[in-house]
## 1
Amino acid sequence: MENRILLTHGSGGKLAHELVEKSFVKALANPLLAKLDDSAVFDLSGKLAFTTDSHVVSPIFYPGGDIGKLAVCGTVNDLAMSGAKPLYLSLAFIIEEGLLQDELDKIVNSIQKATKEAEVEIVTGDTKVVNRGSADKLFINTAGVGIIPQGVNISGSNARPGDKVILSGTIGEHGIAVLSQRQGLSFSTQLESDLAPLGSLVADMLAVSHNIHCLRDPTRGGLATILNELAEQSKVSIRINEEKIPVREEVLAACEMLGLDPLYIANEGKLVAIVPALDATKVLKAMRGNHYGKSAAVIGEVRAENPGRVIMKTSLGTSRIIDMLVGDPLPRIC
Amino acid sequence: MENRILLTHGSGGKLAHELVEKSFVKALANPLLAKLDDSAVFDLSGKLAFTTDSHVVSPIFYPGGDIGKLAVCGTVNDLAMSGAKPLYLSLAFIIEEGLLQDELDKIVNSIQKATKEAEVEIVTGDTKVVNRGSADKLFINTAGVGIIPQGVNISGSNARPGDKVILSGTIGEHGIAVLSQRQGLSFSTQLESDLAPLGSLVADMLAVSHNIHCLRDPTRGGLATILNELAEQSKVSIRINEEKIPVREEVLAACEMLGLDPLYIANEGKLVAIVPALDATKVLKAMRGNHYGKSAAVIGEVRAENPGRVIMKTSLGTSRIIDMLVGDPLPRIC
């Protein structure tokens, strides 16, 4: 008989303790987690970053990733986007009664691998189980704590006219990969999510410049939405050049078929950096030297006029205003 | 027409930004949250506590509380149980499409009040919306960061033979209050959850003694389960005296009617402290001086023999072994 998660696994009682010890603490082993106190306790001093993300992606497995790796990378990347070195994560499961133990084990294994690559530790956690029909298989929240190196001051409100806008690579893979799995679409080439932890990429960038003004990862709402956020927060306009934005053929083809715009499709392994023009070349070089920044490119610049606007020069040579995402073509993508 | 939360509110796009700004940032106003960057950034140095809890209580409103106040108190209390002064919380919503905006506003209002009482700030957040039928109204995850005063070293593994076991008040109210609301039971007196933030109670205790060995809040699995956890972690036995454990008449009556044991019913505003015998009197006095510790009592002591066991002297004078919760009489109580 297949083992399945029962309501009792969320009771705080005996089965719950067994699940935590056998399935979680063993796989994610580290001394802080193993203490099993109500909080993890550690020494840390300086400018800290703290963030949270819940993950409700459907389906929970998809080409290039799963909800476990996503939960680690999502929070690691949010920490990295503040310039922080990600250190400690919390991990909270909401499980629908009936989830296969095998599926949960696969997810935990994938979490373990992702924490290893990202060089972070899961130090505290929580497990809730809800009755069948009250959730959709599995939701995962991760929160995270990281430390920001001295002299680094990154915020969405720091973009200045004249700054260059750098994108770390091709856009749209995550959203299209999840969508293709969900809807059983098949493309000529198997398209995979770009899901990746970006801590090392940010560290490589900070190693050559502490003057990076903004970092943001274009997840939900895609590149268009986060450029709008940055333009609004910094009270500047952002001009981008369509021809400079790298998009893979398979993503373009899928978007065309589905009537979607890659500018609004979620990514999970990309970032946008806004840096002073003087530092752009060395930051770009550092990015291209990292596995997750190989296709990095300057895609535009920051201007003073029309604050809050994002304007794209199209490949036809015309200009068009790029708005934030309105509506939601792809729910539950992360 | 009634306003309801739509899938689009979780898209990361325009409606999502409006929801965050109008419903969350405004109500929970503080400078860290208002920055709207991917992480909150603050200076902090020392021994930190970090914890997480997801809340899936059903129904989301019940006598004496709601899922919002619970989400704040749950995490505040987990931090306090490590001896930490709770400081910063994250707040992550998973909303089922169709939730009434009014209900969400009520919850956010209740979160705001609870953070004010607990003297903590919500500094970072996340909102996901899932389609109808993929969640049950609203789930909330909070994670939290606090700072542990120098010289304080509290852990479930620190209980020593001879220590006294102190309980901060009556048990069973939270579980019975939620259950009565869920099942439409009515008791002669309206029973309310004991839901409360315990940071000030712990601070009052630490003000008279830095020698507190263990603190734990008897939530899921109740008093019986957490005493078992402490006995196991510390490799000691715990003897308790049934007559010393305060239980309200209404809880006893409800438990009798429903065939439940108050020892296994969840509390959300109580704690167990294990302290050296020498410090017990002053810690007890400090607890009774705090609103949330008025009915505090010494309920037992720690012994060396039979490590891992919890043994109760019953009101009939016999002894019985108190095991951890097996099964789950009350799912989704927190």
## 2
Amino acid sequence: MNTENEKNKDWRGKLHEIIYEANTFAGKAFDVGLLIAIFASILVVMLDSIDSYHQKYGTLFSVIEWTFTGLFTVEYILRLVVIKHPLNYVKSPLGIVDLLALIPSYLSIVFIGSQSLLALRALRLMRIFRIFKLGRFLSEMKFLTVAISGSLRKISIFMLTVLTLVVILGSVMYLVENKENGFSSIPESIYWAIVTITTVGYGDISPVTPMGKFVASFMMLIGYAIIAVPTGIITTEMAAAARNKGFHHQVCPGCGREGHDQDAKFCKYCATKL
Amino acid sequence: MNTENEKNKDWRGKLHEIIYEANTFAGKAFDVGLLIAIFASILVVMLDSIDSYHQKYGTLFSVIEWTFTGLFTVEYILRLVVIKHPLNYVKSPLGIVDLLALIPSYLSIVFIGSQSLLALRALRLMRIFRIFKLGRFLSEMKFLTVAISGSLRKISIFMLTVLTLVVILGSVMYLVENKENGFSSIPESIYWAIVTITTVGYGDISPVTPMGKFVASFMMLIGYAIIAVPTGIITTEMAAAARNKGFHHQVCPGCGREGHDQDAKFCKYCATKL
Amino acid sequence: MNTENEKNKDWRGKLHEIIYEANTFAGKAFDVGLLIAIFASILVVMLDSIDSYHQKYGTLFSVIEWTFTGLFTVEYILRLVVIKHPLNYVKSPLGIVDLLALIPSYLSIVFIGSQSLLALRALRLMRIFRIFKLGRFLSEMKFLTVAISGSLRKISIFMLTVLTLVVILGSVMYLVENKENGFSSIPESIYWAIVTITTVGYGDISPVTPMGKFVASFMMLIGYAIIAVPTGIITTEMAAAARNKGFHHQVCPGCGREGHDQDAKFCKYCATKL
Amino acid sequence: MNTENEKNKDWRGKLHEIIYEANTFAGKAFDVGLLIAIFASILVVMLDSIDSYHQKYGTLFSVIEWTFTGLFTVEYILRLVVIKHPLNYVKSPLGIVDLLALIPSYLSIVFIGSQSLLALRALRLMRIFRIFKLGRFLSEMKFLTVAISGSLRKISIFMLTVLTLVVILGSVMYLVENKENGFSSIPESIYWAIVTITTVGYGDISPVTPMGKFVASFMMLIGYAIIAVPTGIITTEMAAAARNKGFHHQVCPGCGREGHDQDAKFCKYCATKL
């Protein structure tokens, strides 16, 4: 019984390595295979959403979708089985996404029309970032993550400023422009302010009165200037990350000074061997 | 009477601490509570501006608005009472905003329609930046303020250049394009030039003649290049601010001044060994 | 006669100082006065270009315009008289602009309709940059000029790349999209490509066929990425300009090392008095 | 026969120098002449694509186009003849482009309508970058190439993130918005998501329902923030390239290697005093 238990463990351990890790060849193959399946399933959902294709190949798409749903269900169950604490996986972001990608298919049996929720399967594309955990992209990925997470607090202050700004400017525009010109309510005007300040500019709503155009011009110039702020934040953070990457580990044993390049063999200040 | 005066002082002092400061628990609670009230009141004004909601819940919204107006009036009076120099508060930007947020409600009794000015209450959202004065956002907020205020003069030169450019290019476009294509006057053409150079591009006015399209293409490429300037300005300033931030821990033991480089061995002001 | 000549010189010299220089009070006053006159004349031209105003106040505007034309003519003649080499002024950019601002008024006597060329008077706004030559903006102005002129060659390579790109992508789009959807000729398609790659996006021409939308999506993502290039160029150049500004003049007389802050009194490496 | 062979070699060698190199006067002249011919041929194709010109000057354009096709055919054959390994040229990017520019003319004899493929001749504009290989632009060109190729891996991670994002957000929008409002299929919604997140914003498709506008606002603000990422990447890389550029004059007298910091006293590779 002990050996059987061990065998069992071994069997689960191997599967765990294949499904959750990416160090072994089987693990990599599983990850790549999964990604291809995700891509294919999303492609089918995409094509099925086009009316003309749906009418021609609707049944075929339906069969393929159910096949993928079956595969992904098996994968989900395997993930639950081979992990020690299944609840941790279920509650993790990727676990929630994996479940979200399965539910719509089963829901569509009961509720007709909920099949369109299959579009949520696109969320599984987030697994693509697992590829970057392999090989040469690792350090670049880490660099970007460090730089962006380091600037998150500043970016959130910026975003809150922009949000306050669009609420105020949207309200002002609601007062200035006529209701007939698309600025029919404050939320609508705020939507317009966001479209304007981010320089998207659909043109579905645009100022018509001279006063409205004047206020809008003012807003655009503000938007033009403040777009520089997030760029400045991230660039500064990246420069800091790049500097740290190159330097901070090497301290000269002779004079104790830092700042040596990564390929330096001797201290540039006192010529001690590093 | 002396004790009563002291008590009175004490009572006013405590209220001052609650309303104007944010160091104590009561002060923080007041600030957060006020922000929630501001958010709620703005939400009501927003919803009330949507026609269908206004027709259904107009009376309810009216009651809530008057309740908030009452609360904010009490808050405004308290702010006047507990401060030593009430006029300083009245003349301060936040004081003006607080008053602007109150007036429309009272005006609406006399002038029907002025209620839409309630949208100005959105200006009170500026109080949100008081939150950042608390805790961990303080240094980030300070960093952004230093970098932006440090680049204000350069940004204003840039803005003046852009304004000159849009006046010139708008005038040229007025000459080049037909009046029927939306370029009906020079101010209108300048509005178009701003929409174009800031890359917003509503499309409400767009060049129609080949010559107009050629000039517009030229303008767009210019706009594409010069958007780099404010970004460059702010990034450089932020990099400088980030560098300074790195310095500020070193205090000279001789003269007590800060701001030394990280590789400095002697104080640059008094030559004391660091 | 000698003294008269001297007087004459003196008289011309003084006027030269007032008109061309900005060091004396009179010189500054002349510059500011001239700018106000330019602003006012442009404002009149602007208002006159609005049909409803033109019909009401057309005659008044005409009188004001002729007054300004008279003033500017006197100014132009004075500039010719008080300068040693009048041809140099006539051939200088500002001289050409000053003349261009005068011609339309006189032309309008002969050719009816050429009055709209008055819009060219906006070019005279370029004189506004003379203000920055005064006082505190001088160093900021110089900083921006150095950084931008230093990056001109790189920016021009970038612009040529963008131009090549829009010609190629415009041609591809002309092949891909139907002529009925606005892509009626290659120049038209190139115009669309510029509108797209600069993220202006009027929407006067937009892809309709699936293939066209695919190619356009590709172009937009390219445009999204390459907008980073001019920003990078100018930021790097500005950082270099900022670094040079702070440092490069001070060399320690004791140890010969550079890199001292501008407010440093002692060398940070060897404590020698700077 | 030996001398004839040598003569032959010499003749081919000289032509090779003229056609492929740009060091001699003849080589430069050939490059410039070729560029002018390319420009002229593209201009003719452009003008021919405009209907009104085509009807008037169609025959003339046809003659000029065939002349250029003849010239470029001769050039292509010469390039094949004078090079040692013709296949290498045929398979090189420029070789493929050169062939692509020739085929449409000859195809148009057999298939009517394929003449519009002549637009592909615009691809030959890529030869313009050969100019930068001459003279003063060389180092700037190298600088930009180093910086951009150094950031390619990071940019590709960013692009993949953006692509994942637009697929997810496009799918969400397909669920949220009505099919009648332009979000008729998932690919269509993804196209809209790209138009929005790159801030192009044609307005051919724009959200109509309140929920759709809310989701779109969210997307625009995301797009506003993440545009900072490629800029940050390229700026950091350029700053690094600029720093390296500053180093390259210091060559170690001991080992002859470059790349030392400006404050280095000893070679970091062999500890020789600099």
